[in-house]
Every structure is written in structure tokens, then in C-alpha cells.
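Working notes for the structural subgroup meeting. M.R. asked for a predicted model of this chain before we commit to crystallization trials. I am recording the input and output together here so anyone reviewing the notebook later can reproduce the run.

Input as submitted:
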Amino acid sequence: MKIISNKTNRPIKIALAGGKFMHLGPLKTGQIADKAAERPAIKKLLEAGEIEILGEGEQSQGGTDAGGAPPEARRGHRQNTSLRSKGDR
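Returned structure, recorded in C-alpha cell form:
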């Protein structure tokens, strides 16, 4: 698996094998199969400078991570940490 990074400030749609697509948000990363990196659509985006292919397990230099926050803190609803009495609804 290779890591692909969107270098633009707009979302992109990448055509993959089998009629599938990968949607990458601005400055986000995703994983693709090793063979998918040889597809013409990906090569075209790579030459245009819109995406960057990183090796397996590498991180982008741009620091696209959410500041090292744990995964549960990066998306979804916040966990309720307040303790309420049994009758408080």
C-alpha cells in the first residue's frame, strides 16, 4: 500500500481500477494499492503537482495531522464526560 497526499486546497476525485473512485479532501491523505500508482489518471495528477505519492508509512512534510490528537478527538461528536444524577435528563 502506498500513501497518496492531496497537495491542493480543493477536493479531488481520483479514478481507480474497477470503476471505483477515491475522494480526497484538501491537504488530506489516503491509501492506494501499489498497482494503482501506475494508472494514467494518477500519473497525470502526479505530473501536475496536485498529488504526492509517499512511501509506505511515511508522513507528509506539511503536517496534515490534527496536531497529534487521538482519532476520537478529530471527528464525530464529543464524548459526554459529565456525570449526571440518575433523574437528570
